[in-house]
Amino acid sequence: MSGKDDPHYHGHRERLRARFAELGGDALPDYELLELVLFRSIPRRDVKPIAKELIRRFGTFAETLAAPSARLMEVDGVGESVALDLKIVEAAARRLAKGAVAKRPVLSSWSAVLDYCRAAMAFSEKEQFRLLFLDRRNALIADEVQQSGTVDHTPVYPREVVKRALELSASALILVHNHPSGDPTPSAADITMTREIAAIAKPLGITVHDHIIVGRDGHASLKGLRLL
Fold first, then answer.
1. Distances from the Cα of 201 to the Cαs of 57, 157, 162, 167, in angstroms?
2. Is there a contact between 77 and 47 (Cβ–Cβ < 8 Å)?
3. 68-82, 103-117, 119-133, 185-199: range with lowest mean pLDDT
4. Which one of 58, 137, 170, 217 is separated from 9 by 20 to 30 angstroms, measured CA to CA?
């Protein structure tokens, strides 16, 4: 009996959809939420083994979505079209998280800022340095990736950061970068670079509110750690 003719196969899909409709995504483990996504990409195959293997290999639902397409396609059953569908879901999640930050005073919606930063960067395999430019009301003017680097290093030039803030007429900055190792603990270089940017920006009327470091294991705030 083929998968598409197996009543158990159809019954499982309907039961999982019903649970999602009744309880929402928070009630489902990562692999079942991933199954729901894969149902539409792979309509005639039991996707539970694929979902479980993806979670086993990458760790979480979020890490699976953030994995490079080439690595996703290393999993049996994940072809180019399935990988593309997963990357579309990842892009949608980022857009949703960014929407919670846009046009709102950033400092009064700090949890949304952290959620957005984690969605955008926490699971990347390469280090990125991102800048959030704020106006006088601390609303987001622009969100830009200034540099992308290797697995453990991103070159950052403090004067270029401040120059870009002046170009955008920003009154404040939040610096964000990720640690692909997963550990968000700031390095000595992170602390030095942050203080250099703050020192150049201050005389020009630009405040550096914080430097957030994100990783799979959480986040660190240099301001919260009293390092800024």
1. 43, 13, 6, 13
2. yes
3. 103-117
4. 58
Contacts 24+ apart (CB under 8 A), 31-36: 31/55, 33/61, 34/61, 34/64
d(CA 20, CA 36): 9
Q: Where are the domains of the chain?
A: 3-95, 104-221
Nearest to 60 by CA among 213, 179, 215: 215
Torsion of CA 116, 120, 121, 127, to 10 degrees: -130
Which residues, in sequence order, are CB contacts of 34 under 8 Å at separation 6+?
51, 54, 55, 61, 64
- What's the CA dihedral at 22, 24, 26, 31 to 10 degrees? 90
Answer whether 173's CB lies under 8 Å from 146's CB.
no
Q: Which class for 36: exposed (0-12), middle (13-18), buried (19 or more C-beta within 10 A)?
A: middle
pLDDT tens digits for range 10-51 = 788 889 999 999 888 888 999 999 999 999 899 888 999 999
Q: What is the CATH number of domain 3-95?
A: 1.10.150.20
pLDDT, residue 2, reads 44
pLDDT tens sequence across 93-136: 878 777 666 666 666 677 778 877 877 777 777 888 889 999 99
The answer as to CATH 3.40.140.10 being correct for domain 104-221 is yes
Q: Is it the case that residue 3 has pLDDT exceeding 70? A: no
The rounded distance, in Å, linking the Cα atoms of 201 and 117 is 23
